Amino acid sequence: MNQEQQRSRKVITLSLLFGAMLISFMIRFALGVVAPTLMQMYDITPKTMGYILSGYNWSYTASLLFVGVIVDRVGPWMAMAGGSIIWGISTVALPIATGAVGLFVARLIFGFGQGVLIPTNALAISRTFDAKERTRAISVAFSGNVLGLAVGGTVAAFIMSRFGWQAVFYVLGCASLLLTAAWFLFFPDRRVGKQVASLPDPAKAAGEQKLSWFSMFRYRATWGIAFGQMGYLYAYFFFVSWLPGYLVIERQMTVLRSGIVASLPFLLGMVGTLAGGWLGDYLIKRGVSPTVSRKSIIGTGLSISTVMVVAAAFVAQAWLAVTLITLCVGFLRLATGSANSLPIDLAPRAVVATLTSIQNFFGNVGGLLAPIVTGYIVSATGSFVGSLVVAGGMALLGAVSYVFILGNLETGRIEPRVRPATQMSASEAL
Predict the structure, then answer these.
(1) Which residues contact 358 (CB under 8 A, 6 or more apart)?
(2) For 422, which DSSP code?
(3) Residue 429 lies in a domain
(4) Each residue of 367-422: pLDDT tens digit?
(5) In-domain check, residue 195
(6) CA dihedral for 118, 120, 125, 131, sign (positive or negative)
(7) How far apart, in Å, are the Cα atoms of 171 and each of 16, 167, 283, 325, 335?
(8) Is residue 425, in this structure, part of any structural domain at all?
(9) 111 and 58 in contact (C-beta within 8 Å)?
(10) Are 62 and 364 in contact (CB under 8 A)?
(11) What is the residue range of 93's domain?
């Protein structure tokens, strides 16, 4: 493959990954935009709406227990195509729901389809990009989700104000199915099956194949990225699920204005995502070790975001609260490229999606709890102050885990434990 073909392959791969993140996060955020209307229409309490907003995350999180292994085995082309069909159809069908239970079930199905999204990103990028450009590639792909949140709030609010809340999901669901068709037709890497790096030693090859989901928990690095992602995604999904509701309920904005204002943090978040990716690759090219590069960017981003969101909880002026939250999301997303590069840094290629699914399983436990805990706090106190403070505390937990629990990337890689060749049977060595 010549240089021009390789470049085209990279551009198409990143464009499709970006598009998948964009449309999926537009759909995730859309329910938050229409939530205040649905609460009035169906007499849904903040506590119950917290469960509905987290509905996709229950099935999404559960699917991460096994979907990484599936992605490793079938490859990114088939995995993403299948998952996106499920989440697209469930989005189009959501307006059929006429109450809290129906809305929750529709989001459960949506979340099950979404399970392939992050593991597929990791595996596709690990196959296509080398280590010196990987952080930027991940940041470009993941910038689709913050742009989706930024555009999704405005688009959903506009469609809802003109055509009603049901039209939001008809439009976004159909757009998602069109993207599925594009993925299936144009994604460059159509290899099906697990791709194992070339290993000259048959014992090492056999060991790599036997590195299982559960065996990865023997490594300190697994726990570091797991708890780090839990804190990071709790804070992030607080904004994904409740930011429009916070602006309407706490800051007394209209639905249309809240949709527009809620886009601001995610626009800066996209800038933070891209900046973090560029900085990560720049530091490595300048000779900084991956350990120092990853930890310094993640620790700085999550720590500053903690300060910003806690400050936002106690200011009286709406404009100042929005400014602080916008800065918070910008610094939070600074960590995205480095945090999501870690499974590729740490694991053999044959199990990259598996380790990614572990990282994001724990992360999405945090993401799942964020809307529920927020609903309980708001119902109990009548205010979002406590929920903002909790979000800041979880971001700080993420910083501590990534910086102190993770350990050294160069010496703490997740490698298979290989038996000596003399202990192998003839059939294993063949």
Answers:
(1) 64, 68, 213, 216, 217, 222, 225, 226
(2) G
(3) no
(4) 888 888 988 898 899 889 999 999 999 999 999 999 999 988 888 788 776 555 44
(5) no
(6) positive
(7) 19, 6, 42, 29, 32
(8) no
(9) yes
(10) no
(11) 7-185+202-419
